[in-house]
Amino acid sequence: MMNFQAIMASQSKTKMETLELQNELGQPPPQVKDWPEVKSGQINYDFRTKSPGEAGIMETVELMQEIKDEYRHKPFIIELARQIIDSVKHNPRTDHAQEIYKWLDQRVGFVFDPHKMEQLQTPEVTDHLGTGDCDDYSIYAASLLESIGLPTKYRVVSYRPDGKLSHIYPIVKIEGVWYAFDVAGKQSLGWEKGGITRNVDI
């Protein structure tokens, strides 16, 4: 009897063969919403309240780490990341990260969380909705980047004189250098908004 790992490997091989054939035929690759994990209806919306102040921010980042650590190993995230970088797979790894940045920038629009609620979305929910806030961008981006072997951290920043933290994005390590990955800024790999008065890397 085929074990779970063998079944997943077989399914992954079949998916990759299908993708290769579609690329040869000039057909667009399937979107995340078409994967069985999403079509099955088992999409998790992670709604949580948080503690007040900076303790709540750290609590949120800890949950973001947990989601990223779970999703970076999922077959559909690994395969999606490889689809995205396919045209530049022989290029420097900064190009891999830039391709993921561009893909997310084009695919996900920015929308704030519900009023007075901290909502964390898993990557397939963000893709399914096509929208999310900086938390959701960060989880999706970090999951994709780590699935192709690029280490990430979350950077929480303030632009205020009092140092109150108000924005988050990943930073990614490529060949010993850390690059900002602020997709919500709609710029490019390495860009950071000016006027940062405080930052915390986690």
Write a short abstract of this structure:
The chain has 202 residues and is an alpha+beta fold. Helix content is 45%, strand content 17%. It has a single domain (45-201), classed as C8orf32 fold (Roll), CATH 3.10.620.30.
Feature tags:
202 residues; alpha+beta; C8orf32 fold; two-stranded antiparallel sheet; 7 helices; 8 strands; 45% helix; globular; disordered N terminus
Mean pLDDT: 81
The chain-level structural class is alpha+beta
The percent of residues in helical segments reads 40-55%
Kindly give the count of domains: 1
Write the H/E string, N to C.
HHEHHHEEHEHEEEE
What sort of overall outline do the alpha carbons produce when their principal axes are compared?
Answer: globular
Q: What is the makeup of the main sheet?
A: 4 strands, antiparallel
Q: What's the count of strands?
A: 8
Description:
The chain has one domain (45-201): C8orf32 fold, CATH 3.10.620.30. It contains seven helices and eight strands. The chain has helices at residues 4-24, 36-39, 53-71, 75-84, 93-107, 123-129, 134-147; strands at residues 45-48, 109-110, 118-121, 131-132, 152-158, 167-174, 177-180, 198-201. The strands form three sheets. Strands 7-6-5-8 form a four-stranded antiparallel beta sheet, covered by helices on one side. Strands 1-3 form a two-stranded antiparallel sheet. α4 packs across α7 and α5 runs antiparallel to α7 (134-147). It is globular.
